[in-house]
């Protein structure tokens, strides 16, 4: 097994703060136990009503702009004193998005010896007939290879029930239920799926092949160690539909062929093709990205050199 996905990226690296937050009891090594831990300290910003909790406006706006696990853990440390291994009341949780659930689980899996990585794609289990833009964690298990896990779906200990109506194990999400960006692109390009059924359910105007194109690149970047925010864009991601050339389409086709195969049981290491593709200036993560923030508008964000491949 290649050590690439055991090694923390600058985004998933928890830093020294993790030990202080864990407390006297060590972190569990079982992936399901780690996912339950994540579920107990994070709150998706669209879930607050299910907890009967009013999230302060600044948390809705600012928490999910945290790019790095170190920032997420810092905020958790400031919100409460309970060990990370104990579920928290909503007021003491980090208020984020699906990407934050995936990022923290990936970070903890790597920290406890399980290879893991983030995947960008679409969940079919939020709204019938719709592919909702979503991020999950993929972890390596002996005998199975790469398995998809969605910590956001794990039963919420403080409620004694799950928040989502699913009929599968959230630690083994079927690949037809979560479609990685590359497979979504191929399905749309080959006429097997309607691009308008791929989007963001909470923002109906965000949908279609342009979004899928962006998610193909975001998934590639995550496989290469840059776990971007869901609304970040660069290179070919930022092109309007009428600006996309045949060469661009062929490039995304190539990326999709590589990344849609990247979750198979035989894929035990980061393929050289990922590194090669990320060397293309249309795909490479630059020093500055365009961030289409939900609450702060569009802005250009500078990334540190350490945060790029």
Automatic annotation (TrEMBL):
InterPro entries: Papain-like_cys_pep_sf, Transglutaminase-like. Residues 1-11 have a biased composition (Polar residues). Residues 1-23 are annotated as: Disordered. It comes from the Bacteria. SMART domains: TGc. Gene3D superfamilies: 3.10.620.30. Pfam families: Transglut_core. Residues 90-153 form the Transglutaminase-like domain. This is Transglutaminase-like domain-containing protein.
């Amino acid at each position: 097994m290649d050590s690439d996905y055991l090694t923390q990226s600058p985004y998933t690296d928890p830093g020294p703060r993790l030990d202080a937050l864990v407390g006297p009891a060590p972190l569990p090594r079982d992936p399901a136990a780690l996912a339950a831990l994540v579920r107990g300290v994070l709150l998706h910003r669209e879930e607050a009503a299910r907890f009967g909790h009013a999230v302060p406006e600044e948390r809705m706006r600012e928490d999910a702009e945290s790019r790095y696990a170190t920032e997420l853990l810092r905020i958790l440390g400031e919100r409460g004193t309970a060990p990370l291994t104990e579920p928290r009341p909503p007021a003491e949780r980090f208020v984020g998005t699906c990407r934050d659930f995936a990022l923290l689980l990936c970070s903890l899996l790597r920290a406890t010896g399980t290879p893991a990585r983030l995947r960008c794609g679409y969940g079919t289990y939020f709204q019938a007939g719709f592919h909702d833009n979503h991020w999950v964690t993929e972890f390596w298990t002996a005998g199975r290879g790469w398995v998809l896990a969605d910590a956001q779906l794990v039963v919420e200990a403080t409620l004694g029930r799950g928040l989502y109506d699913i009929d599968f194990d959230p630690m083994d999400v079927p690949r037809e239920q979560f479609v990685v960006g590359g497979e979504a692109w191929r399905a749309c390009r080959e006429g097997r799926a309607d691009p308008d059924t791929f989007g963001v359910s909470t923002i109906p105007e965000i949908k279609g092949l342009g979004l899928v194109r962006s998610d193909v690149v975001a998934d590639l970047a995550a496989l290469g160690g840059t776990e971007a925010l869901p609304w970040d864009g660069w290179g070919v991601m930022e092109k309007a539909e009428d600006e996309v050339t045949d060469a661009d389409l062929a490039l995304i086709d190539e990326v999709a062929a590589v990344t849609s195969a990247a979750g198979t049981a035989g894929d035990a290491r980061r393929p050289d093709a990922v590194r090669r593709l990320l060397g293309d200036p249309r795909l490479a993560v630059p020093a500055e990205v365009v961030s289409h923030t939900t609450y702060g508008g569009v802005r250009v964000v500078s990334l540190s050199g350490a945060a790029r491949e």
